[in-house]
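Retro notes, item 3 of 5
We never archived the inputs for the magnesium ion complex last cycle. Fixing that now. Sequence and ligand:
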Amino acid sequence: MPPLLEVDDLQVHFFIDEGTVRAVDGVSFSLEQGKTLGIVGESGSGKSVIGQAILRIVPSPGQIVNGRILLQVDEKENLQQQTLDLVTIDPRGALARSIRGSDISMIFQEPMNSFSPVHTVGSQIMEALLIHSDVSKAEARNQAIEMLHRVGIPQPENRIDAYPHQLSGGMRQRAMIAMALVCRPRVLIADEPTTALDVTVQAQILALLKELQEEFGMAIIFISHNLGVISDISDDVLVVYFGRVMEQAPVKDIFDYPLHPYTQALLRSVPGIDTPVRTELATIEGTLPDPLAYIVGCPFYGRCTECGGDSVCRDQPYELTKVSPEHFVACPRMCIKL
Amino acid sequence: MIAYIIRRILIMIPTLIAISIISFIIIQLPPGDFLTTYVSQLSASGETVDQAELEALKERFGLDEPLYKQYLKWAMNFLQGDFGHSFEWNKPVSELIGERLSLTVIISICTILFTWAISLPIGIYSAVRQYSWMDYFLTVIGFIGLATPNFLFALVMLWVSYAYLGLSIGGLFSPEYAEAPWSFAKVFDLFKHLWIPVVIVGTSHTAKFIRIIRGNLLDELRKPYVTTARAKGLSETHLILKYPVRVAINPLVSTIGWTLPELVSGIAITAVVLNLPTTGPLLLSALLSQDMQLAGTFIMLLSSLTVVGTLLSDILLAWVDPRIRFGAREGL
Ligand SMILES: Nc1ncnc2c1ncn2[C@@H]1O[C@H](COP(=O)(O)OP(=O)(O)O)[C@@H](O)[C@H]1O
Ligand SMILES: [Mg+2]
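Structure as it came back at the time:
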């Protein structure tokens, strides 16, 4: 049976006046029903754009220039095939809109700005239901209250009429989750949903997501720049850098046998439970390459402490290589040795 | 909400009292009281002054009493709709300004409606299609509208319609209706004339509004909640009108109050050029001839109008924006 969602050699480029930003440059992965894929990488790596591409809401001047996004769909009216390539459908058309928010939904980093400030939380949750199913307003309201209750918001029958600014950050993110899940999507894309929250609330939200995943059985794409958070929730991990996959493996392998120097550097920057409070965390020296640059070899070249400026790393064309059945890495030094 | 409105109305009272004191001071400003002016005017034109009438007027305005008592008397009369006497026209002020004030208000309201009706769709279009050739085109037109003084625009309109269309567009009524009592035909005739001052006065405002709506909406379109709405499966048109436009026009709602005085003074100059029977020309002549009771009444009424307008737009803003209604600070 084919996976629920399969992304194959996805390329999303932004064509701006100064040149081309290769925000996503050949990313592939697949996602099974009920599983969680963690996407990790520094800010600016192209994580959000991957999510936008799957929903077909990449803002202009961005374009999907290559690749396939295959989604297994239930029978929809006038749609015969079981597998739908989202890249080929009209992003503004009725089909794309019927998938958005219903089959695939998304939650965002900023729980404050992700709600309209002048509409009640409840009306924004009910809206999703009213778009995708033909329920009455009263029924939609009941389901929204139910969902708010489910995500752990106290007194949901009162809070449903609250405006976003009347809720705390954690409550707002819970409401956001309620809005995303109210139509029971099969895929949830969570784009840094805990980044703006403090640590205790962050842990609560992660626990809630895992709980809801168990109950509803949806697959999750969990995006974060924090490997610690990713390790908590993911089954598989995709380490992205400069729009490319650096390493892909089950979460255990990423932590036990990280192969790419970039993954190793990310791991060093995560505080562990046993890290003494005042230990200085390692940060990765340097910054991402110029987004307009076209880099043939390893994009981490120049920041990498392992290769020490080996010209092979600079010139060897990028390639993701299989090192074990489920473990892939794109480090030229390692791949040549293999 | 109710508490908010009551609080705002209470705050209005001291403001209105302050305005009335200023208006009263303005009435008192010319040397001597206005009766001396009146008497000297009459004798200058060779008429005799009726002593009994003088006494009656003195009695009515309490001119022999101390100033604060005169003020109280004036204010009480004002509240009861007795605005005093115009010596220039030798008529009660209320009789003089009643119709003109309503015409001014009608023009102002029509201008506000015109401004919104034109600028809202154009502003939205320019923001959504930023940097399209249509956006540039509308921007250029807008700047021309913004840069053209009303009186010049009025003169051009007068000349064009007279020279090329053979129409005389001055005034608000055709000659046969000017003195006629109000009827359906007269209202219809009014609307046939009304669009000219409305367009003239409204153009610069429309241009300004387009710029504001475009700018606000461009900011809002980038906000995450727009992406959220899109990710929910809303259609593009629907979501833009429902979310960012709604937020983008909030600040404009609050400007309705202070556009009122701006409109009234904008209309004044246009009205002189177009010979409109509104308050502007009358106010101007009252000031020129030191017809102070008339002028003071105008100042008082127009200022009150502004205060009331501000109140209305504050209430409107609280009504459309829950963050204000519930006293929130942004970015909490
Ligand atoms: N609307 C846009 N216009 C131009 N470039 C963009 C736009 N959105 C994203 N990008 C570019 O795409 C790259 C990846 O961005 P993003 O996916 O937001 O990173 P991440 O989510 O990993 O922090 C960045 O280099 C960014 O400059
Ligand atoms: Mg991001």
